[in-house]
TrEMBL record:
Cited NCBIfam families: sensory_box
Domain PAC: 78-130
Cited Pfam families: AAA_lid_14, HTH_50, PAS_9, Sigma54_activat
Alphabetical keyword list: Aromatic hydrocarbons catabolism, ATP-binding, Coiled coil, Nucleotide-binding
Lineage of the organism: Bacteria, Bacillati, Bacillota, Bacilli, Bacillales
Name by which UniProt lists this protein: HTH-type transcriptional regulatory protein TyrR
Chain segments annotated as coiled-coil in the UniProt record: 114-148
GO biological process: regulation of DNA-templated transcription
Domain PAS intervals: 11-64
Length: 456
């Protein structure tokens, strides 16, 4: 008899452990709706102690605003199992599954409800919907962008630049492109050539800052054979002659020596060139597009650039504004480069909304070239979804807000501990063990803190 009582006690203890260890709230009433027993999950869902529920009628609890609607009342009325979403007095949302229990003769005996907290899931769903809405807005902005021969823009400033390009492309006048490093002067030069009547003819580029001064003239104008040591015996055509009937883009024109400037002026005035070491002039028909990030007017005043050449080049000046003055172009450029490099490297990399926001918040001192370089790096080295922490400039956006109140300080420390524990173990069970909390608490905190950080 004693053994039998111990066995029953052991079973009761095990059943109680199961009852208390449930991840769901368990809520049991009699056939009339009076609470018989609840597990401790109720305390978390309603911020009330277990003993506050026992003996109370569910209608009274509903009228007190503890929860609404009462699933138990609906089961008592219908004698059928139901499911519903319930809101608690603490603002949480519960998925409640309630079923009737009948006696052997078919009378209602009790009602058992199982409730699972959906608050974090619904919050996550809300965030996902916000992200999707934000992405849709970004895509809408992208669809409003103008694409002119591969150059996209949404800004009014660049649309004016495009308008000027379209007007002057069909004539042979000299164009001077002005703007900071990386704004896209070489792209605009190519666009001018592609829209011109010379588009089937040669197009060449020369960066005047990339060659030593002693080689610039021979590269521009060519040379006769045997002119200097190391020269080709038969001589060599310069890039101006190679561009005959086409377009020549001279980047960093401010780096030309005064001697080379003088000869270039002669080309623009007389449409002839004289190779180094030659006495014979060669007629040419070439359109010159020059570019610089320097202030040529100031260089003229300082005697570093020929005034007459400046006036010859400055027939149609086109200033390309920096990216910080046309932020509406950032996202179209990001998407353009993302599509391009995904295609080149056979990837499917995407950017999270917060990462896109970070791109919008940058100053981009390197302008379009800097955006392009960073997108290529992210496509080559990143995961499929690029979040804020993956960006090379993420530290500028990852500064935690100042913590002032005690609850804020506690939450700040708790967040750091949960994230650190999860990164170490990758398991809610082990996080719970390390932090000394229940597994359900650990799961909720992981969803709250780790999910928030990955969405960035």
């Amino acid at each position: 008899m004693t053994i039998h009582k111990k066995h029953i006690q052991q079973i009761n203890d095990e059943l109680y452990d199961i009852f208390e260890s449930s991840f769901d709230e368990i809520f049991v009433t009699d056939a009339n709706g009076y609470v018989l027993v609840v597990n401790s999950e109720c305390e978390k869902n309603y911020a009330l102690k277990v003993e506050d529920f026992i003996g109370k009628h569910v209608k009274e609890l509903q009228e007190m605003g503890i929860f609404y609607p009462s699933a138990t009342l609906k089961v008592i009325e219908s004698n059928q199992a139901i499911e519903l979403v319930q809101k608690t007095n603490s603002g949480r949302y519960l998925h409640v599954r309630t079923r009737p229990v009948f006696t052997n003769d078919g009378h209602l005996k009790s009602v058992i409800s199982y409730s699972r907290d959906l608050t974090d899931l619904m919050e996550l769903k809300r965030k996902v919907e916000e992200m999707e809405e934000q992405l849709e807005n970004y895509k809408k902005e992208l669809n409003e962008a103008v694409d002119l021969e591969g150059i996209v823009t949404k800004s009014e400033a660049m649309k004016k630049v495009f308008s000027t390009i379209q007007r002057v492309a069909s004539v042979n006048t000299t164009v001077l492109l002005l703007g900071e490093t990386g704004v896209g002067k070489s792209r605009v030069a190519k666009l001018l050539h592609q829209l011109s009547t010379r588009k089937q003819q040669p197009y060449h580029e020369l960066n005047c800052a990339a060659l030593p001064e002693q080689l610039i003239e021979s590269e521009l104008f060519g040379y006769e054979g045997g002119t200097f040591t190391g020269a080709f015996r038969e001589g060599k055509k310069g890039i101006i002659e190679l561009s005959n009937e086409g377009t020549l883009f001279l980047d960093e024109i401010g780096e030309l020596s005064l001697s080379a400037q003088s000869k270039l002026l002669h080309v623009l005035q007389d449409r002839t060139i004289r190779p180094v070491g030659s006495t014979k002039a060669v007629s040419i028909d070439v359109r010159i597009i020059a570019a610089t990030n320097q202030n040529l007017e100031q260089m003229v005043e300082e005697g570093k650039f020929r005034r007459d050449l400046y006036y010859r080049l400055n027939v149609v000046p086109i200033t390309i504004p920096p990216l910080r003055e046309r932020k509406e172009d950032i996202l179209p450029l990001v998407y353009q480069f993302l599509h391009h490099f995904n295609t080149v490297y056979e990837r499917n990399v995407r950017l999270s909304p917060k990462a896109l926001d970070a791109f919008l918040g940058q100053e981009w001192k390197g302008n379009v070239r800097e955006v392009e370089n960073i997108i290529e790096r992210l496509v080559v080295t990143g995961e499929e979804m690029i979040t804020l922490k993956d960006l090379p400039f993420a530290k500028e956006f990852a500064i935690d807000p100042p913590v002032h109140t005690l609850p804020e300080m506690i939450e700040h420390v708790e967040k750091e501990m949960v994230i650190k524990a999860f990164e170490q173990h990758r398991s809610s069970y082990k996080v719970a063990e390390q932090l000394g909390i229940s597994q359900s608490q650990a799961s909720r905190k992981i969803r709250k803190y780790v999910s928030d950080s990955t969405e960035q």
